[in-house]
């Protein structure tokens, strides 16, 4: 009887890919809000919107998230029209539905009602599979004096770095 030969294959462990292609970031979010927990959500988009995002034609300024009829909706997200599409284009400022689990939506709804929490989008990006995702922060608005203190701390940190750099 002949033996069945089996090739031994050495499988390499695949490293998790954490890098993603950032499309747009909300730089003012950390200045205007104290950021708590962050979530990742999918977003329902049309084909021309995805094509516009691939060429970084989006603006996240003035965007907010609200929960309407048990759905998380992102409002005022400006995705410019795709120039190569002539007649099947999208509206730039339409409301877009965020894809979250029902438990997550109920949790966010409760936080908004009881604690006065704001849902702020931090960034929009393509994950390693090429799917558009939105990073959402559960945040609380800062007062004016909090913003001034944060700016002072930032200035002091910059001055310390300069001083260390010059002494070296």
TrEMBL record:
Record keywords, A-Z: Cytoplasm, RNA-binding
Subcellular locations according to the entry: Cytoplasm
Listed InterPro entries: SmpB, SsrA-bd_prot, SsrA-bd_prot_CS
One Pfam assignment: SmpB
Source species, domain of life: Bacteria
Coiled coil: none
Family: Belongs to the SmpB family.
Entry protein name: SsrA-binding protein
Native species: Candidatus Xenohaliotis californiensis
Gene symbol of the encoding locus: smpB
